[in-house]
Amino acid sequence: QDQVAESGGGLVESGGSLQLSCVVSGSIFRSYVMGWYRQAPGKEREWLASITSEGGADYAPAAKDRFIISKDDDKKTIYLQLNSLTPEDTAVYYCRGGVLYWGQGTSVTVSS
Question: One digit per residue, pLDDT tens: the chain, 112 residues?
């Protein structure tokens, strides 16, 4: 069964870091560009970063200097390292495979 499942969210103090994980079924992992998105309360979902099957990464301006996307081919897992977090980073973070496959999201709350 094709699936995308995020984990790693939680409560962190301003300035802290978190690493989010996204476990992906093999067919999706091999075939599609994987991306991380987030949706803050009352805001539209926004793209943060993507990584290709070859490992090429691309970032939105909001993520470029503080977030790092990576992957582990053996574990079929995508990661998003979140650094220097601020309360404005509070959101539900989603993993996406291609255009069709979304996870349920993992919530990140940054306290001031």
Answer: 778 999 999 999 999 999 999 999 888 888 889 999 999 999 999 999 999 999 999 999 999 999 999 999 999 999 999 999 999 999 999 999 988 899 999 999 999 9
Beta strands in the chain (DSSP E): 4-7, 10-13, 18-24, 34-39, 46-51, 57-59, 67-72, 77-82, 91-97, 101-102, 106-111
Residues 6+ positions from 20 with CB-CB distance below 8 Å: 6, 7, 8, 9, 36, 79, 80, 81, 82, 93, 95, 106, 108
Instruction: Tell whether the torsion through CA atoms of 13, 105, 23 and 57 is positive or negative.
Output: negative
